[in-house]
Write a structure and sequence with these properties.
Strand order of the largest sheet of chain B: 3-2-4-7-1-8-11-10-9
Shape of chain A: globular
Radius of gyration of chain B: 19 Å
Number of strands of chain B: 11
Distance between the termini of chain A: 30 Å
Largest sheet of chain B: 9 strands, mixed
Largest interface: A-B, 37 and 40 residues
Helix content of chain B: 25-40%
Structural class of chain B: alpha/beta
Order of helices and strands of chain B: EHEHEHEHHHEEEHEHEHHHHEE
Strand content of chain A: 35-45%
Oligomer: heterodimer
Radius of gyration of chain A: 16 Å
Number of strands of chain A: 8
Shape of chain B: globular
Number of helices of chain A: 1
Number of helices of chain B: 12
Strand content of chain B: 15-25%
Largest sheet of chain A: 5 strands, antiparallel
Amino acid sequence: MAGYLKPIPVPDKVSKTFWQGCQRHELLLQKCRDCGRFQFYPRSLCINCMSQSLEWVRSSGKGTVHTFTVTHQNVMPGFSQEVPYVFAIVELTEGVRLTTNIMGCAPAEVYIGMPVTVVFEPISPEISLPKFRPSPSAL
Amino acid sequence: MSFITKKAAIVGIHEYELRRAPGVTTQQIQMECAKGALEDAGLKKDDVDAYFTAALSPVEALVTAEYLGIRPTYIDSTCIGGPSFIAHVGHAAIAIAAGVCKVALITYGSTALSEMISIGTGGPRPAMGGPNSFELPYGQTVVGCYALAAQRHAYEFSSTDAQRAEISVATRKWASLNPHAMFRQPLTIDQVLNSKMISSPLRFLECCVISDGGGAVVVTSSERARNLRQRPVYILGWGEAMSHGTVMSQMSDFTHTVASVSGDKAFMMAGVKPEDIDVAQIYDSFTITVMLNLEGLGFCPRGESGHFVSAQRTAPGGDFPMNTDGGGLSSNHPGMRGIFLITEAVRQLRGECGARQVPNTKLALAHGTGGMLSSTATLILSNE
C-alpha cells in the first residue's frame, strides 16, 4: 500500500458505512424502505422518492459486465504505469451499476455480459476498493 | 413556436485564428475575440449589457468581464461543458425576448495546448470526495468514458471501427478547405484504423485535437439586428438537457444521450424537422459522440448512425454536410468547443465560407455534447 499513487476515496457521513463494509469484504447497497429501490452510489435520501428511510443491504456481489474499455493511455500517476487496464461498468444482480475495474484475467478476455464477482483491494489502512474478477463460469 | 422564436439574432462573431498561442492568456484571447465580434456586428463595447462565459473557475465571468472593461447587468456563467456557449445563446435569446438586456456578449478562451493539459487522458485531476470517490479510483479518463459508449454501441447495433473512421476521414476533408484548421493533410480509413489505441475501441485519430483558442458571439434583438452591419442570423430554437454528471455508473443508457431531449425542444421551438436542416455542426470530441448525436437528434434511427455516416456521406459533396470547419477532430478543440459550432453555423448562413461553403444554406443546426456524454445543447439558426 505504501506509495499508492491513485486517488483514494474520502468517506463522509453517508458513505462511511459503505467503506466500512468494504473493509469487512461486504458490498453494501442502500435500499429504500418506502419504494423498495436499490441505489448506488450511497446518498442521503432515496433518489427515486426522496425518502429518508434507507437501509443497508449486503449485495450478492455478483453481476455482469455492462460495458468496458481497455485503457491504453492515462497520464495520471499510478495509472500511467498500469496500462493497459480494464475500466468497466458492472451491473449487479440487484439492478444497480458500479464503475470499477476487472481484475484477474487478461484485458482481451473481458466481454460485455461476462459474469463477474466482487473482490476487495486494500489500498490504505481505511479503504478497500471493490473491484471485480470473472466468475468461475465466465472463462 | 414560442415567445423566444426569432426574437433574437446573432449579429457578430469572431474565432481566434491561432491554434497554438504560447504566452497568451485566456483573457487576452477573449479580449481579441470580443473586439472582433463587436466590430463584426458594428457595435461598441459600451453597448454590451449582458455577458456570458464558461470556464472551470466558477467566477470566470467576473474575472474576464473585469479584464474586458465591461459592467454587465446580466451575467451568466453557466458551465455544462462543451455545449455551454450554445446554452448561453439560448439564455441570451430568452433575456433579450423578455426585455431584460439588449446586447449580449458571449466569450470563450483556453490555452489547453500551451499549458499541455492532457484533457482526454487523465489531466487535470479533479478533487476527491463526494461522488468522485466512486469513479476516480478506477482510472476514469474522458476518452475512456466515451469508449464505454462506443463499445456498447458496437455490441448492441454491430457498428464497426471502419464506420466510426468514416467520420474522422470526412471531417479531415472539410479541414483541408479551412486555412486555419490544425490538421489539413488527407486521411484514409486505414490510417484511422491503424492509429494508436487510446481506450478501446477508440483510437488516436478518433479523438479530437487539443489546441489553444477561443471565440466570441454577439446576440441582440432581431429588430435591432436588421440595422446592423451583417446579415442577421435568427435564433429559431434552442434546448438543453443533462442525464448525469461525471460518474459513469449513473449513465442510464450508454447508447442513448439527451441529444434527443435538447434536440426535440429546439426543433419544436423552431417549428422545423431534422430533414429541413441544410448544414449541421455536431460536437465531435470523439467519433462516437457524433454517432450518438445523429441518432439522438433524429437524423437517423437509433442504432443506424454507422450506416448513416458510411460512404463519406458527411464529407464535402456528400448529402449531409457536417462540421464544415474541420470540427474538433481536425480544426481546433481547446476543451469546450461549443462556441465554434455557433461561429461556423453563422459563417455558413452568411455565405462566408469560401471553398467550404454549402450552397443555398438557409437553416443550420449547432449541437454540443459535454462532460462524459452528460449534457447537450441544441441551437437552430436561420438567415431568413
